[in-house]
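Hypothesis: this fold can be encoded by more than one sequence.
Test: take the structure tokens below, design a sequence, compare later.
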């Protein structure tokens, strides 16, 4: 496992939510939020897995030609 290990508070801060929200996200299988791994009963999240989760949830960007309005 590579990447930084984030504790629950740091994971919550990353998404600007409270730690209870992280618990709810983990408990909701439809969301697909990465499960924590534990070291001495303390939950940690792998930052690389969080980044992959974020990318999977991002909306695809539109090509620049679609964004331009015709004159």
């Amino acid at each position: 496992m590579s990447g930084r290990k984030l504790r629950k508070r740091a994971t919550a801060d990353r998404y600007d939510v409270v730690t209870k929200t992280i618990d709810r996200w983990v408990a909701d299988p439809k969301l697909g939020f990465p499960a924590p791994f534990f070291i001495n009963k303390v939950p940690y999240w792998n930052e690389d897995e969080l980044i992959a989760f974020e990318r999977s949830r991002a909306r695809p960007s539109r090509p620049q030609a679609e964004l331009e309005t015709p004159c």
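The two ends are 52 Å apart (CA to CA). DSSP finds four helices and three strands in the chain.
Hypothesis status: open.
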